[in-house]
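This part of the workshop introduces the protein records we will be handling. To make this concrete, we reproduce a full record directly below:
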Amino acid sequence: MRVHINEELYNNLINHSLKRLPEEACGFILGGQAPGKNEELQASTFIPLRNIASNPRNRFEISPVEMLPYLMDSNNPVIGLFHSHPTAPPVPSEQDLQTLWHSIPTYWILSLQQPQHPELQLFQIKKAPQTTYHKLAFVIRSVMA
């Protein structure tokens, strides 16, 4: 699976995450099937959501009341769950792998270990007897293209 991301969305992820430091930022990615592309998604919108975790520097939690309208909107489906790792690499942590969000197609992690060089990675998490993840390819398209 490949995910197409426009430059504006990518920059919004970075800017929101930098503003939330030292806490983890989180939110949803809305989008759908990439036009004319099988097995490819087009990310269209980043929806920042509040991190209500008791320890927001090391984990994230989203209020069910805040997320429900997005999960119920079939016209703008949630295709990704986003969060930042302020001091860790962009790899799913043990807590990330315990997620109940495996039904959302993509899992986005932005590392801010080096804030001047943020690193984004996308994953697909599969729940089974052994939870696994694998890295997904993504393409950032310039807004001018």
